[in-house]
Every structure is written in C-alpha cells, then in structure tokens.
Amino acid sequence: MSFQFSSLFNGLMHATGLKKRIKLFTETEESEIVAAIVEAENRTSAEIRVHISHSYQPTDAVNAATKTFKKLGMHKTVDRNGILIYLAPYTKQFAILGDEGINNKVAHGQWDQMRDAMQNHFQQQQFKTGVLLGIEESATLLSQYFAPGDINPNELSNEISNGN
Fold first, then answer.
1. CATH assignment of the domain containing 53
2. Whole-structure pTM over 0.90, yes or no?
3. CB contact at 8 A, 138 and 46
4. Residues 84 and 130: beta-carbon distance below 8 Å
5. Residue 12 belongs to some domain of the structure
6. Is 17 a member of any domain?
7. CA 147/CA 144 separation, integer angstroms
C-alpha cells in the first residue's frame, strides 16, 4: 500500500515539476548515525543532533540552522550545550551550529578543520562518512569542555530530524 502511494506521489511530483525528496541515508546508515550520536553523547554531556532540510529555496545555511535549532528545542538543554549538524542537500549547504554554552568555551576556529573534512566527504558524495566524522569530532572537542557527569541524561532525541 505505501509503495503504491509512494509511486503515485513520485508520479505527481514529476508531472507537476516538484522535485523528489533526496534520501541521503539508507535505514542502515541512519541507524549507524544514531548509534554514533549515542556513543558520542556517552563521552560528553553535550547533545548532538543531525537535521536534513528538504527546502528547495536557496538560503543562508546558518540562519536556517538557527531556526531549526530553536524549532527542535536545542536551546533548552541545561548547560546550553547542544550542537546541530544541519544538512541542506537541495542547496548543497551545511552548517555546524553550537549553543551559547559551547560558543562561550570553544573558539570559532576550532570548528574549521572539522567543517573542511566534512565538506571534503560531502563533495565526494560520502554523506554518511562526513556526518559520522562530524559527530566523532564534535564529541572529541566537546568532551574537553563538557565532561559527562555521574548522571548524564539524554536531553534531546538522537534521531535524525527532517523538515525545512
């Protein structure tokens, strides 16, 4: 039933000129990414999220990530230590956005090497590898400033979010 709906929907999208949603990750890859987030969050009290935007509109990725950050409630962590890896495949952009607790401790330039390495993977269509690298590098960096305590609650969902 869902296959027929999906085929019908894709047909309508083609007939009306709408673009097909880009599926960056297989279900297995999504599971690997979620597992990497769980592992990373065991090394730090920071909260890591990955979001895929399906907007076709060219926009500033940092502004879009900022809106998504708030929409996902990432600014509500106790230590204000959420980090969002924001992917916009239609516009071929991405952003790494940290909350004020992170920005108060981590120098802006410390993210540059991670950004460049992720971008290199994305340019080679290695999206899973780029995201996994971003999660791992984020955990390594943030564990220096936000060590996990005896109690390390999971304040935010680890699932990949989707939307505009």
1. 3.10.310.50
2. no
3. yes
4. no
5. no
6. no
7. 6
